[in-house]
Amino acid sequence: MAFNGTWKIDRNENYEKFMEVMGVNMMKRKLGAHDNLKITIQQDGNKFTVKESSNFRTLEVEFTLGVNFDYSLADGTEVHGNWTLEGDKLVATFTRKDNGKLLKSYREIVGDELVQTYIYEGVESKRIFKR
Hints:
The protein is mainly beta.
């Protein structure tokens, strides 16, 4: 339940390069790096509700650990996959619908921060959030 709460973006590491490799155009990359993202996570057993609110969109996603679902990334990229819990890490394994390539994401609590790591085509990026 350590993930529960509201988290606001504090800083990014290599996020623009990650978006570039994902195929996000330059204008969207510049905007995305300054999206003021806020995530609210609520865990109830194996079920999660995640509310994402940014300068560009607000959405709510509900998922159950280990159960596949469809999701649309902020740039409109459609993916299919699931989240699992591995130790203290939430691990996402998604496949892009447009090209079949794998996108991995990890959420973990490090100190008093939520660190979200993305890996795509060998490029790793982090978004760090604070309560």
